[in-house]
Amino acid sequence: MNQETVNYIVKYYSFLYNAIEKQAIEQEIIMMSLATPEDVENYKKLFPNGLSDDEDMLELVGLSVDDFNFKVAERLLDEHSDVIYLNFCERCESLARTPLAKQCRHCGYDWH
């Protein structure tokens, strides 16, 4: 799967994320806002249940953004291929910008 397809799936089908993936994103946002180790410790004291120790979730948090997106997109395509619509151009067979697009951003072909 190429990066364009990964970005398309992540952008338009994020509502299909499972609880662990959503939690990983939330935890990553929290961790990015905590600048120092003292901030992390203070956060843990204030919100003891705020940071999770779930191994599956922590595995996702440890990935780069690209690796996380690839892993999630791959899972979504495997588990929800009946819901995910990859909108390909009829002429050049490139992926359209959105699932509802009617004009190819690559070759300009219009299928309105």
How would you describe the overall organization of this protein?
- By secondary structure, the protein is an all-alpha fold.
- The chain has helices spanning 3-12, 19-33, 37-46, 55-61, 65-79.
- Helix 1 (3-12) crosses helix 5 (65-79) and helix 2 crosses helix 4 (55-61).
- The longest helix is centred in the first third of the chain and has 15 residues, at 19-33.
**Category by helix and strand content:** mainly alpha
Proportion of residues in helical segments:
40-55%
Whole-angstrom Rg: 18 Å
Can you tell me the overall shape? elongated
Please tally the helical runs, counting DSSP H or I stretches of 4 or more residues.
Answer: 5
Separation, N- and C-terminal Cα atoms = 27 Å
Could you list some keywords that capture this structure?
single chain; 112 residues; mainly alpha; 5 helices; 51% helix
